[in-house]
Each structure stands twice: as structure tokens, then as C-alpha cells.
UniProtKB/TrEMBL annotation:
The keyword Kinase applies. One of its GO terms (molecular function) is kinase activity. It comes from the Bacteria. It comes from Arthrobacter oryzae. This is Thymidylate kinase. It holds the Pfam family Thymidylate_kin. Gene3D superfamilies: P-loop containing nucleotide triphosphate hydrolases (3.40.50.300).
Amino acid sequence: MLVILTGIDGSGKTTAARAMVTAALRDGKDAILLRNYAGRRRMSLVSARYGIQFPAQLADAVETLIRSVNVLISHTKTWKYPGLIIMDRHLHCQLALRQVRGLPRGRFLPFLLRKLPKPDLIIHLVIDPEEAHRRILARGTDVETLDDLNSFRTAYRSLPEYVHFTEVNSGGTPAEVLSKLRIAIANADSSRGTSLDRSKASSQGP
């Protein structure tokens, strides 16, 4: 089962991804975590430290290349993997960044999304941007403004793919968030099983 996690910075994607895999392994199930980073955090730190402002198109080109390669490697690693696959971030994240930067969607990323295996579930972690901003300041590993986080939230919701996302509120405790995520995965797995049963029945005929 392939599950993709998206959400604005500070929504807890990486923490949630680790928790889901740990919980699945604890239950005796096969599970793997794959991260599809784009190097954006490192670029933002370099920019803040040295006062370098990367042009939007250049930053997007570098991030798109890195993220696309990581996504392709991740999907290769999971070929015929029998257990739970959690992907922390995906191409949708880059499409949202393009929205924020005022860049067009382009053709390559949407094309790649259509060609890659369809996920069983895309979970979008929903959090108030002010809470996300407090988390980012507390961890002190990257820099994001509140305006940026509000823009990211709007950008995600404007993606045409967003209608297929499952929203999960990530503003609670880690245990509460994990419980919601496990319910979302269980519901998706149940729906997938029902669809497979119907498909088998249809193929067998009357």
C-alpha cells in the first residue's frame, strides 16, 4: 500500500511518517519510509546565511531535478514491495512551490505524476500556519515566514490534484495525530480491498 504525505512546512510530515512506519513494524507488518526531498531547506539556509537570493526559476529548476530523481528512485525501491510504503513528500510539493513563486505548472511534473504508480492514499496534514510557524522557530533548522506558510496552504488547496487528498489535522499531540493517520490508512485499505473484490467479480462474469 502506497501512502504519500504532503503538507506545509511545520505540519509534521517527517515525524508522522516515522511514527506510521514504527507503528506498522511494531504490529509485525512490513513497512518502509522513503523521503523525497528537494534540497529546499539547505538552499534557504545558504540564502539566509550568505545573503544570496536565488532566482525563483533557478531554485525551482534545481529542486525539481533533485525531487524528481528522489521520487523515481523511491518508486524503483518499492517495486512489488508487499507492505506499507510511506513517502514523505512527492511531486505535489514542488507544484505547490511553483504556485507560491508565481511559476507555471509546466508539463514535466504533471506528466510524471500521470506515469508513476497511483498512490492508494495521499494524506495532507492540515495545521494552522501560525502553529506551523511556531514549530519551525522551535526546531531552528530552517527559515519560513508566516506569509510564506499561508501562501503554501493556499497553493496546495489550489492544486487540481487536491480533490483526491485526504485531510488529517496534525495540530494535536503526536499520539493523537498517529491515531488519525492509522484510521485514514485503515479506511483506504478497506476501500482498496472492496474495489479489488469488485474487480475480480467483474472479470469472472456472471
